[in-house]
Every structure is written in C-alpha cells, then in structure tokens.
Amino acid sequence: MVVQSEIGDAGRVKAHGDGLIQGTTFNNASFVVDTREAGYGGLALSIEGPSKVDIQTEDMVDGTCGVSYCPTEPGNYIVSIRFAEEHVPGSPFTVRVTGEGRIRESITRRQKAASVASVGSVCDLSLKIPAIDIKDVTAEVTSPSGASQPAELVAIGNDTYCVRFVPTEMGVHSVSVRYRGVHVPGSPFQFTVGPLGEGGAAKVRAGGPGLEGAQAGEPAEFSIWTREAGAGGLSIAVEGPSRAEISFDDRKDGSCGVSYIAQEPGDYEISVKFNDQHIPDSPFLVPVVAPVNDARRLTVTGLQESGLKVNHPASFAVRLNGAQGKMEAKVHSPSGALEECVVTELERDKYAIRFIPRENGVHSIDVKFNGSHIPGSPFQVRVGEPGQTGEPGLVTAYGAGLERGTTGTQSEFIINNTKAGPGALAVTIEGPSKVKMDCQEVPEGYKVQYTPMAPGNYLISIKYGGPNHITGSPFKAKVTGPRLVNVTNASETSTLTVDPAVRASSSSFTQSAMPRPGDSDASKVTSRGPGLSKAFVGQRSSFSVDCSKAGKNMLLVGVHGPQVPCEEVLVKHLGNLQYNVSYLLKERGNYVLVVKWGDDHIPGSPFHVVVP
Predict the structure, then answer these.
(1) Torsion angle (degrees, nearest 10) of CA 151, 157, 160, 163
(2) Helix (H) or strand (E) holding 235
(3) What is the pLDDT of residue 238?
(4) What gap in Å lies between CA 230 and CA 199, rounded to an integer?
(5) Distance between CA 576 and CA 499 in Å, rounded?
(6) How many CB atoms lie within 10 A of CB 319?
(7) Residue 316, SS3 per DSSP
(8) How far is CA 414 from CA 440, 441, 473, in A?
(9) Neighbours of 361 (CB within 10 A)
(10) How is residue 112 annotated by DSSP?
(11) What domains are defined for the chain?
(12) Is residue 608 packed enough to be buried (19+ CB in 10 Å), middle (13-18) or exposed (0-12)?
C-alpha cells in the first residue's frame, strides 16, 4: 500500500547545475536531479536542440541522479525534466550553448566504368593493407559454380597489393582476402566476369583502418571499391569537431584510396556516397583520439590469434613499461555481443586480460589505456577452426524474392550456407515500407519470406558470420502493386537475425527443432548478476543465465511489479545456450522476477528484486 505522502510530487523535485543554464560545444554539460523528498514516481528526461545528444545518467551515492550530455552544435537547447509525468519546477529549461559547430569537409570525384573482364583473361583486384606481413595474407576466389581456388598476391608497393586470378567461368565471383585467417576490411569482394549487373551505390564497398578509428593529427586511410557499381559520381565527406584534410588516390582499376587528417579528437562521421546515394554501412562513425604517449608505451605478450576454443578461458598479458593510468578491455563476438574482459594485475607494471569466448568465429578485443587504444588494438582472434566458423564468401542466395515482389503478397528466397560453417545470419530489408519477415530452416539452409506493403525498390542485405556481406549482397527487389499502408518516412528498415546456436543440424532437423521431453533439466541452469536482486528506476539491470548443461528448451523471463508493468525485457543469446537478460523498470517497489527453463523454474526462481 502506498500512503499519500509517498505519491510522486513533481513540485518537490530539485534540479540544479550549469547544464541547465549554459554549455559549450563538444564539452559535457551536467546537472543533478534530487527526487529524495518527492515520493515514488518515474523520472523522464528529454533534450531537444540543434544537435542530437545522448543523455547519460548516474545514481550518486547520496541518492540523487547525475545527468550529463554533450552538444555538438551551438544554439538553444530545451531540457525537460518530468517526475510522475509532471514537469519539475523550472522545467522546461532553456540552455544556451556556444562554440563552434561540427565542420564538414567533402570531395567529389567522377569514377569511370571499369573494363569488362572475360574468361581466360588476367583479373586484378587492388587493395591497401597497412602494417602487415605479406606471408600472413592469403587470397582465394570462389566461382559462381562454387569451386574455390587460391589467387596470386602481388606486392605493388606502399602497402598496396594486387589479387590476381584467371577466371574460367562467367558471372559473379567472390574474392576472399584474409590476414592471419581473418578477412581484411571489405572482404569478401564481389568481382563480376562478363557484363556488369545493374550496379549503383549498393555495389560499392569501403573498408580500412580509417573507418574504424584514427588519431588526431595523423593520416588515416581506407579504400573504396567501385568496380561493380559502374560509372558515377563518388563523394566522400568527413564531419566532426575540426576540419579534416582529405586526399584521394584513383587506382584506375575500379578502386581508390582515401586518406584524411582530423586535427581535433572527437567523434567524426564519414559519409561515402555514389550518385548521391549512401553506400552500404555509410555513414561510418569513427572515434578520433588525442595523441597519448602513455598508451603507445604498452606492449602485449602471449596473445593467441587462432586456435582458441569455445567456453575455454583465453588470456594474454599487457606490460605498462612505466606508464601510469587505467586499463580496460572489451571483447566483441561475431554475433555482436559485447562483454567486459577481466583485467587483473599480475605484478608491478604487468596485467593479465582474460575472457571466455561463447561462440566460434573472429572476435575483436579492444584494449584501452586512459581511454585510448594501445598499439595493435583492436586485436583480432579466431575461436574454433576455420571450418567451424561462418564463411560469408561461401554463402549464396537465390529466389524470385531477391528480384521482384507484389505488395501484400509474400515473397521468398533461399540462403544456402551448407558449405559455410555455422554463423550468425542477419537479413535487413530497406525500402518504402516495413516488411513482415519470417525465416525457417530448410535442407539448403534458410528460407526467408517477407511481405512488402508499398511499391518501390527494396534493398536486401544479407550478412553472415559477422559484419561481412555474402556474395551479391545487397540485392535490389522491385515491388509493384497498390500502396497498402500510409508511409511517413522515405525509407523503412526491417531486420531479422538468426543465431547459429539455435539452428538445428540437417541430420536432426525434425527432432531438434522442438525440445523433446526428458532432454531438459532446469535444475542444472545457473544464473548470476546484480539484476537478480536489485534494480534502479530508469536504469537497465542485467544478469546472465547459463543453460549449457540443462538440455534443450526455451528460456522464459517475466517481471511482475506492484503497479506499472516492466518497461521491457530483453533476452540475448550469446551462443552455446548462454544468455544475457536485461530489463528496465519505471517505478520503485518490490518486484518478482521469474526465470523458467521450459515449464520449470530455474534454481532460485522466483527471484525478489528491490527497487529503492
């Protein structure tokens, strides 16, 4: 029972701080919200102004809430603070932000159509791979019929290499280039022998270290491959806290190199357009860090780049070499999961970094010192043998749904991954309307069905085993028929993901698609994490659940509260029946958290969660 004095009263909330009065661009503005005397209620924050801002909140030790945001454009910002759905005193606040805005620098170049390759002729694909040993690079070409053959790798100079092969078939080939077993940025590449297809921005690729990170005052480089797109205008824009110098090198073979120098640290947005259309994955968000001498002093030892095993601990050492500061590390898995690594001091000046991979494939490890990447970071490590990981160059897609469709009618296509090994599948359809998507297993791999609701062109992107497109992706489907929905946005995006760990093998397709009685044992499920006992209003709480020893079943999670339902519950499968669960609560009180493996509670469930 909530007594009258405990009912949320926005008039008793106090808000104070410079972030409610003034600010400067690219600097954090902060303020404090004190709800301690205001009873029970949900706190809602919004900031509107010339630039989009991310709002960061932190529960302070004294029970207040600290809020910060970073504006990137000058002008007036409106800060609204609501408690129990009512404005607090002074809200909405008008904040005057001064300083320079984001600066945009761009160049445009006209790209000519590449010459048509023919069967029996020598075909070259150029790429730039800085700071590598050529002995650790391999190249392979897969023909339209599925035959694979090694390709010759020729060093041209200045970190530029040429992949050379002689095709024996007409059609779209897939060129895979790997450094120490890991695809280089942009790989696998599409290379058409014979007349090119429709082309356009969807067939342009960009990749390289300059699209992943840069250092202020130092050149950052990346490559763009336009061969499959045909002739057209290529534009590159860099926007951020400072003006960037952009250099362009046309290699005259359907590829080009781009170099830029950003003068100030901060987040930069790099847009690559072809005929005024963004290419896949553009715009790219690139963090530019300040030169930090201390981070450069760190060295890594004992890093195993391949041969790691799922659910087996992996570790390596980092020596500080006299540097003073804080070290942190995170690991990105192929399915997109992000986890903190454990950083432990081994001895004075030496630390160990440990993590446990939960899935096969290439993992990326960020190691930062005082907020800056150490030399070599992010590090790429392979978990499992090459045949155990998803290989996008060996995945094919076919079917009428990749070319055409009719509004209100289900279109379909097949994704064949039988030769590619297990990997996470991501299908994105972008077009005039949202589409309803379904995916089911078939002997060839997956059958994807979608229903468009408005006529026009739809781009279908298919990625496998990580961020890499399969051969031919993205595909363009032309949809005809009447408009069946009111469209408010110029473009709508629908996404479907399939985790490799939940896919049945073809040999046990019917049996493993649904759990069988007797396979499941909820008593063998383990769980841990702060979200099992405590949560805070407006903050995401989380915990992990390990079902790897509990047989086959479904994980079911529910949260029951005193009045308002739980805002959202998210269950993320990390691989090998390991799950991460997060939820968001909007009011104080006592909650019941139910976690079931099939029909049975796991040990400890139902859990009692207190929200102070």
Answers:
(1) -10
(2) strand 232-240
(3) 94
(4) 6
(5) 10
(6) 16
(7) strand
(8) 10, 10, 13
(9) 26
(10) P
(11) 4-101 (2.60.40.10), 106-289 (2.60.40.10), 300-388 (2.60.40.10), 392-510 (2.60.40.10), 522-611 (2.60.40.10)
(12) exposed
Strands 103-111 and 152-157 turn out to be unpaired
3-state secondary structure of 261: strand
Average pLDDT of span 25-41: 87
Residue range 289-311: average pLDDT?
Answer: 80
Kindly write down the DSSP assignment for every residue of 559-574, as one continuous string: EE-SSSPPSEEEEEEE
Cis peptide bond upstream of 455, omega within 30: no
pLDDT of residue 102: 81
Q: At 16, is the secondary structure helix, strand, or coil?
A: strand
Count the alpha carbons within 13 Å of 246 in the hemisphere toward its beta carbon: 22
The answer to whether residues 411 and 400 touch, using CB atoms and an 8 Å cutoff, is yes
Longest dimension (CA), the chain: 85
d(CA 583, CA 570): 6
Determine how many CB atoms are found less than 10 A away from the CB of residue 256.
22
Q: Which helix (H) or strand (E) holds 295?
A: helix 293-296
Contacts of residue 228, Cβ cutoff 8 Å, sequence gap at least 6: 190, 191, 192, 196, 197, 199, 203, 204, 254
Question: Does pTM surpass 0.85?
Answer: no
> C-alpha distances in angstroms, 547 versus 334, 389, 422, 471, 575?
20, 22, 20, 35, 10
Taking the CB of residue 218, how many other CB atoms lie within 10 A of it? Answer: 11
Mean per-residue pLDDT for 208-221?
88
**pLDDT category of residue 186 using cuts at 50, 70 and 90:** confident
Tokens of 191: 């290379």
Residue 380 is predicted with a pLDDT of 84
The pLDDT > 90 percentage for the chain reads 21
CB under 8 Å to 556, separation ≥6 — which residues?
Answer: 594, 595, 596, 597, 598
Can you tell me the distance from the alpha carbon of 33 to that of 537, in angstroms, rounded to the nearest whole number? 13
Distance between CA atoms of 485 and 481, rounded to whole angstroms? 12
